[in-house]
Amino acid sequence: MKKLVFIVFLLTVTSVISQENNATLTIVGEANKQIEIDSYSLTISLRQIVANGNLNFELASLSQTTQNYKDKLKTIGVDFSKFKKNVLYQLYASYSEVNDVSYYNYATTSEEEMIKIIKQKMNGLTIVQVEAVAKEKNNTEWSALTLAAIEDAKVKAKKTADHLNKKLGRIVKVENSDSRTQYINMYKPREIQKHLVTVTFTLE
Question: Which residue positions does the secretion signal occupy (predicted)?
Fold first, then answer.
């Protein structure tokens, strides 16, 4: 019986020591990153113009509306042949469409060109969506952001460890949830964003 009690006591002490030796501190480190715009994308719809009680405009088939839009784009130096038909979006929206309609996508790296296209107005044309696509970070940029975030985590961890009367040990785990792919806040496109890294340290 005494032997059994001694073994239980020994196991308990070993467990406590193990927990002490495995004490860790996990901190989220941050680094500021500027998002750059890589390109702009546009989705439009061109539709048949039919009588709906308003006689202030001319009726037009879908092919006529499309030709009218081609002519308008030509005046600003944009080639309509570079617009790609979006059949998938057309299938998605078809349940609510009564008249003939076609959807197109267009992409450009020029903000000036996109603004000129958006300014073109005519019956039968609808701007469905405009998006800015963020430039992807390369490996060098991504690594630099990660290292900066780790250094930020070290500073925070050191202050926390001091507060706990502990010595900050080595890094045992780094979790980087940020990828090279970036995203733009369309409401605040120039906003500084955060590159986040979760770092786990040992405590001694």
Answer: 1-18
